[in-house]
Write a structure and sequence with these properties.
Number of helices: 24
Structural class: alpha/beta
CATH topology of the largest domain: Rossmann fold
Largest sheet: 5 strands, parallel
CATH class of the largest domain: Alpha Beta
Length: 532
């Protein structure tokens, strides 16, 4: 079966397959790399905690990796999650304890700064542990790599010596990109001071490739000779990025659109060092609900934990999968649509031909093995059920769900059970505070009386399609009041649900119950305020 799917993968149009084909055809020329595996990499700056961009980059890279494995099943793959934990701490984060203690170690490598949380040997180790825990919670397969370990163990020694050997050529690349003042002091090498332990940005006054050392002017004006090996220096980050690709043989790495110039510079340096830079996908950055770029410092973003309070991780993975090269608004209003899109894709998967399955997002979200769909109930339906019930807890919704789908229960349909809980939380936080009911005007009241009377004629077990046909027919009989059927449904949402958007009414009424819907219509027609 895998061999058959591999053939289909050649013509798959899903973007992870397109990326995988570029990697296989253009970089490897259809052959296995000399090192014996294809290396995918994601980078992480551990001065802060993992965030939604971290999830997106690892999730998307994993999707390309899995597509590549199907496309070229004989080539092994690895994914390195690389932590730049040798960076000097530039400022004290706002969201940590013991900030004054940490402030005394500014400028030192993150792995030499004491852990303000008191749980690990250093601040870098603490944040690295948070990264690993974060990635493990989503089941990502990866190998963790530490810049500190690479530098100190000697793994990067040859790379640093290569930078020293090609120092002038690298400077020719970098200097034109810098301002006049920065040009005067710039060097790709950042010495680690033996006296203070700080990562220094100081001028290099002499290079000695024959001994593998540099001479730099220390902050006190003295000249210091230091090896470029053994972790005595680290590289400025564009040179560091290039050296890492060169030493490790990185074949594929994504980066945000804002890093395109940096990727281009690092690629030039990588070629100077004698290696080809990795295949790269530049993804667009996220926007907030006002169309502004999301920024951690502004606090206008949506955190992973925010999303996971209201929706399953599969829906977040789908959001990351869709159109990575297009700017997307990432805020709470996009969550219900993402969940329902996921449910729809999952429901279609078993009926699709193999070729279509490879282009279905759930193949990529679940690494080719998506689970069976459960109930068919949408997230929006559950949200509207929560809304009309004024649900305070999941048990209220389950009274209706179990009647509508007798085979469903928290035990037999665990995904649906999670959705019910998510829907209650989302309703409480985002729908309930903004509900605004209104009563029907006289012309609308006539239509609502007719709707109630027609529903009374239906058998109690009428299905959603039968109910939907009745709702449509009532609306069409009042063209003066509702020139477009959209206005008829809008009136139902505003009057029955207290909101300006809503579900497919036939499905909603079937779930909520004919008798319960008729009771609400009676209350409305009696002039009762449904908000009470």
């Amino acid at each position: 079966m895998t061999a058959d799917l591999s053939a289909f993968a050649r013509t798959a149009t899903a973007w992870p397959f397109q990326e995988a084909k570029t990697l296989l055809d253009e970089r490897f020329k259809g052959k296995a790399p000399a090192k014996g595996y294809a290396l995918f990499e994601t980078g992480y700056g551990p001065s802060g905690l993992p965030h939604i961009g971290t999830f997106g980059e690892v999730a998307r890279t994993t999707m390309v990796r899995r597509a590549f494995e199907l496309l070229a099943p004989t080539i092994k793959t690895k994914l390195f999650a690389f932590s730049d934990d040798r960076d000097g701490l530039r400022k004290v984060p706002d969201n940590i304890p013991n900030r004054e203690m940490v402030a005394g170690h500014l400028g030192k490598p993150l792995t030499d700064v004491p852990d303000p949380f008191g749980t690990h040997s250093s601040f870098g180790e603490h944040n690295n542990a948070m990264l690993r825990s974060f990635l493990d919670s989503f089941g990502f397969p990866y190998e963790f790599q530490s810049a500190t370990e690479m530098y100190i163990s000697g793994r990067f020694d040859q790379g640093c010596l290569d930078v020293l050997k090609h120092y002038d050529a690298i400077m020719d690349v970098m200097l034109p990109t810098l301002g006049e003042e920065r040009q005067a002091t710039y060097s790709p090498f950042l010495p680690v001071c033996r006296k203070t332990g700080k990562v220094l940005q100081v001028p290099v006054v002499e290079r000695r490739p024959e001994t593998g050392t540099i001479v730099y002017k220390d902050e006190d004006g003295s000249l210091v000779e230091t090896p470029v090996t053994g972790g005595h220096v680290k590289l400025q980050w564009k040179a560091d990025w290039a050296m890492r690709w060169h030493v490790l043989g990185v074949d594929y790495e994504m980066s945000g659109k804002d890093l395109i110039p940096s990727y281009q510079l690092a690629s030039r340096i990588c070629r100077i060092l004698g290696s080809e830079p990795p295949v790269n996908l530049s993804y667009e950055l996220f926007l907030d609900d006002k169309g502004q770029k999301i920024s951690k410092s502004k606090g206008n973003g949506l955190a992973v934990e925010d999303w996971l309070r209201y929706a399953p991780p599969e829906s977040l993975a789908l959001f990351m999968y869709q159109k990575p090269k297009a700017a997307k608004r990432l805020y709470f209003d996009v969550i219900p649509r993402a969940v329902d899109d996921y449910i729809a894709f999952l429901g279609k998967f078993p009926e699709e031909e193999a070729q279509a399955q490879l282009n279905n997002p759930v193949w990529h979200i679940h690494h080719g093995k998506p689970p069976a769909a459960e109930s068919g109930l949408s997230y929006n339906i559950l949200l509207n059920l929560a809304s009309v019930c004024h649900a305070e807890n999941p048990s209220v919704l389950w009274q209706f769900v179990s009647r509508y789908v007798p085979s469903a229960s928290p035990q037999t349909t665990p995904f649906l059970d999670k959705l019910v809980g998510y829907a209650v939380a989302y309703y409480q936080d985002f729908i309930k505070p903004h509900k605004r009911y209104r009563l029907p005007v006289p012309a609308e009241r006539i239509a609502f009386v007719q709707l109630r009377d027609e529903l009374k004629k239906l058998p109690a077990d009428s299905d959603a399609e039968t109910i939907q046909a009745i709702v449509f027919e009532v609306g069409k009989q009042h063209p003066e009041t509702f020139p477009e059927l959209r206005s008829w449904f809008q009136a139902q949402y505003e009057i029955l649900l207290g909101q300006d958007q809503g579900p497919r009414m036939g499905s909603f009424i079937a779930l909520y119950g004919l008798a319960e819907t008729i009771a609400i219509l009676d209350r409305v027609l009696a002039g009762e305020d449904l908000s009470k």
